Amino acid sequence: MKKVLLVAAFFLTAAVTYAGGYRVSLQGQKALAMGHTGVAVVNSSESLFFNPAGLVYLENKLSISAGVSGVFSNVAYQNEETGAFARTDSPVGTPLYFYASYQATDWMAFGIGVYTPYGSTVEYEDDWAGSHLVNNIDLQAIYIQPTVSFKLSEYFSVGGGPIYVTGSVNFNRNLNRTLTDLDGNRSEVTIDASGVSNWGWSVGAMFSPTDRLRIGANYRSEIILEAEGGDADFENIPNSPLTPFADTQIDASLPLPAELSVGLSYEFCDKWLFAFDYNRAFWDVYDSLDIDFADPNIPDSFNPRNYKNASTYRFGLQYEATKMFTLRAGYYFDESPVQEGFFAPETPRNDSNGYTAGLTFNVGERFQIDASFLYLHFKEVDASYEGYTENGEVVPFEGKYKSNAFIPGLGVTYRM
Amino acid sequence: MKHTVKYIALAAIAVLASCEPEFEDSVEDAGFYSSGDANLSTFVAVGNSLTAGYADGALYITGQENSFPNIMAQQFAKAGGSETFTQPLMADNLGGLLLGGVQIQPNRLVLSVDASGNPSPTLLEGNPTTDVGNSIPGPYNNMGVPGAKSFHLVAPGYGNVGGLPDAANPYYARFATSASSTIIGDAASLSPSFFTLWIGNNDILGYATSGGSGVDQTGNFDPSTYGSNDITDPNVFASVYSEQVAALSAGASGGALVNIPDVTSIPYFTTVPVQSIPLDATTAATVNAQFALYNSQVLPGLVGVGVISAEEAAARMVSFSEGVNFPIIADDDLTDISLILQGPPFNLPAPTANLLGQLRQANADDLVVLPASSVLGTTPDPSNPLGVVGVSIPLEDSLVLTATEQGRVATAAAAYNATIQGLASANGLAFVDARSALAQVAQGGVAFDGGVLSSQYVTGGAFSLDGVHPTPRGYAYTANLIIDAINNTYNATIPKVNIGNYGTVTAANN
């Protein structure tokens, strides 16, 4: 068990991706196939993430779910005034999840989950038009959540647990639009912090007034990753007291916002299940990305983000087609937390529509294979980032963005 | 079965990886930008240092990469132009030039900060590696040759290494196709489909930067007799210029002709204030006492005998007062009275007579050149603390461009510009009014998304540390001007660049 966890954690460090801000909604193939609904769905140990209160309703003594997604995400940028054009060449992300739940008594279940709800990997070509904002970023956060779930009555259950987060960030950008060394190489900085950890918590409740209807709510707390003593590596800096950029340490903090989910699921015509989730992500905590350089000669970097709280509306449908196959489909609308004038190319997210589908193949009594597919569609958007200044003057970075993401996923469920 | 699954998976990954998001109207699509009636498939730029990308007193790789023709070529490529634009790149970013291992052109200037924190332009140290003897024969798309005057473009042998240093140009000697080739001939051999021609600046600039030390050759139609600081006769200019336009436009779909900016637009002439000598009342009185005889007796006496006019006498009066004063200067347009002063009735000793020979006090119409900043107010002879440049020693003629000399420069430039504009309109070519555009930069500046582009030395962003040539940002501004003119003339929609993305002066300490 411990070994499985370690292996999972190892793979998770390669985790990545997509959704409003740097939220990555890929926390279970069954749920994802249904539009990533699950706060009021009980069908696997994925509930550990979606609503810990649901774990106690699982029918088996032991339920384990694990899976991986392949994130193929692309961003294109263009500025029609200058003809500038860029395409990201981001590596394929492979976020994973692992959940195990154990039914201790008929009123209590324990579990542990490892998942990656936040992350981002975006790679532009070095020195592209927006390189003074970002060349590349790789942000990872691994959540480890021991969980307990209690059935308080026939109709009502609660669950929750502490969350331990360990994260890392690697961020590279050019110092400004023009500074170079004598040979014309753009001056740049790489910020690297890893092993940044902190604690948070998750709590949920589920109400099942009838056999068919479940209503759920879940709240996952905000966690601020405080990177202290990270490294700032300056490259291609001219040899001049006018440009006093020497390698130093940094302090910075990155918020992983709280998320509230409420929803319901309803079984009908025996084989059908409908689910609806509403997520509210409290992004307003992400006001500014400030980097404090230890070296007093280097001015601190203030990068306003000014995110707003954002909602996601999720709809899912499940159909138990045969004994062998369960089919799922879903849709969600993901509202971007980015406000007008703060569209930074490091997380180029406008509102998106997610279309999902998937199936479960019952290999035997105990073993299932879960497959899902997500297509995330972003409309072409005219946007600008107005948080960058030169000599005290705001220099907007403007252009059109067009993004998409294709995310196939595969998972397994084991029950006994 | 297992293999099939694997192949399907691999195929799926390949498909997903290739599903790039596409804009409804992508700037990458052919036809998004149009070159209109112009054919941009072979773009050739002909001219002098400005075309070559010269900056900071030198030609070096990053400067060349930011030459206005190279910036334009990259924008042309977005409108159907060629992706390649060749330039005779230097071997390094130091910028110095060698001939047979001996340095003949200095390295570039960089902005260095001294121990007390004062920034100043300083020659970048290092051993340059570009030797004129290492020929890299062209022709190149960028046929800009630093130092070239209008008539040099059609002069055979201008690229003959054997003709150095006086009869040839080291920059052209590096990449001339033969010892007898001409710049315009090499350019025309590329069969340009589109061209820019910006020449004539050096036909007045050498005269101007040398404070009018050369000769105004207006009326002399033989450029082979000209010195390097002379003003080219406007008829000579018109003749060679029309020849060049004809050669370049012979097979071209079009081109752009750029006119000559005013020298008063560049920091080389506007940085050092002419009123620059601070004196207290006592010192002013002492100095005035030394010029009392000159003012009250010598000048009226010379007027009396008809050697100089009353007007000239008035201009030659020297008077200092408490506050910031105009320096005394030597002006070779004044009557030389040094010999007369040595004779009766003045009988002045030769050194004093020579000092007063063409002396006057500067006035608000004079322009003091940038190098004068390191001379004004200094005492060149340490044993004589009273010998102060500008107070008791006149500022050399070569460091002041007087109003008279400015007039000659302006007259010649106006004649050249009339030729340029006339030939542009006669040949249906785009006309680029760089003169007006640079005047705008000099007078108040041009706003861009990161501030204001101005001619202020070092800080204005438009001019490099030599005070004459643009920075990359200044060249980007130039490229935009020319693109504007091309778009207007040829119904094209070539996109312009954001000049805020281009750098200015380079800071570096040796």
Helix/strand layout:
The complex is a heterodimer of chains A (416) and B (510).
Chain A lengths: L1 H11 L16 H5 L13 H4 L11 E8 L2 E8 L4 E4 L8 E10 L2 E16 L12 E16 L4 E19 L13 E20 L5 E8 L2 E13 L12 E9 L2 E10 L3 E10 L6 E6 L7 E4 L5 E10 L5 E10 L17 E11 L4 E12 L2 E5 L3 E2 L2 E2 L2 E19 L1
Antiparallel strand pairs in A: 1-4, 1-23, 2-3, 2-23, 4-5, 5-6, 6-7, 7-8, 8-9, 8-10, 9-12, 10-11, 11-14, 12-13, 13-16, 14-15, 16-17, 17-18, 18-19, 19-23, 20-23, 21-22
Chain B lengths: L1 H17 L24 E5 L1 H4 L8 H5 L2 H11 L18 E3 L2 E4 L3 E5 L5 E5 L6 E2 L10 E3 L25 H6 L7 H6 L5 E5 L3 H8 L24 H16 L4 E5 L8 H4 L6 E3 L1 H24 L5 H7 L6 E3 L2 E3 L7 H5 L7 H7 L2 E3 L5 E2 L31 E2 L1 H24 L3 E3 L1 H9 L3 E3 L2 E3 L18 H19 L20
Parallel strand pairs in B: 1-7, 1-8, 2-6, 8-9, 9-16
Antiparallel strand pairs in B: 2-3, 4-5, 10-11, 12-13, 14-15, 17-18
Helix pairs in contact in B: 4-16, 7-14, 8-14, 10-11
Major sheet size, sense and barrel closure of chain A = 14 strands, antiparallel, barrel
- Give me the CATH architecture of chain A, please: Beta Barrel
> What is the class of chain A in the CATH system?
Mainly Beta
- Strand and helix order of chain A: HHHEEEEEEEEEEEEEEEEEEEEEEE
Q: Compute the gyration radius of chain B: what is it?
A: 27 Å
Number of domains of chain A: 1
Question: How far is the N terminus from the C terminus of chain B?
Answer: 68 Å
Biggest sheet layout of chain B: 5 strands, parallel
> Given the structure, what is the number of helices of chain B?
16
What class do helices, strands and sheet pairing of chain B give?
alpha/beta
* CATH topology type of the largest domain in chain B: Rossmann fold
Total helical segments of chain A: 3
Q: If strands are numbered along the chain, what order do they take across the biggest sheet of chain B?
A: 7-1-8-9-16
Mean pLDDT of chain A: 91
CATH superfamily of the largest domain in chain B: SGNH hydrolase
Overall CATH architecture of the largest domain in chain B: 3-Layer(aba) Sandwich
